[in-house]
Amino acid sequence: MNIQAMNDRQYGLLFGVCRSIRYHDRRRAFFERLHQITSGLTVLLAGSVLFELAVIAALLSAWDIVVGYSVKASLHRDLKQRFGALEIAILLGLDDDSTWQHHEAERLRIEQDEPPIFRALDMLCHNELLTADGLKRGNGANFATLNAWQRTTRHFFHWADSNPV
Fold it and tell me: Can you tell me whether residue 75 is helix, strand or coil?
């Protein structure tokens, strides 16, 4: 499939799928990092002779289990792989409408399994993909605007009232 030959609907679907791949890759990496940090601190603190530090290690370990960093990382890894398979299918797909309807339906099936989206992170992935496509701010491209606090807390708050793209 020639990307230049895509109509707006087809390009919009491909762009959305590529943005989802980036989004889930970043969420997976975030949860893996949290799990690694928690595990490292647990090991360091558990070996402590001070009782208070050993208690902190136990609490960190319990928090990791309750929140389920590795389970969440696995979910986002799976979603990224599913979106990646859809991207390949889109790029290899035929140009008829029934194929595109199938791709759109598959995207909706994947999105049903997604947890709520962190909007600031999604907008950063949108901007990153526009940049990867060779677009620059101010050239008519629809870049999202985020303040420093939204960028810093992108993995912690949903920022539902941010300017959607």
Answer: helix
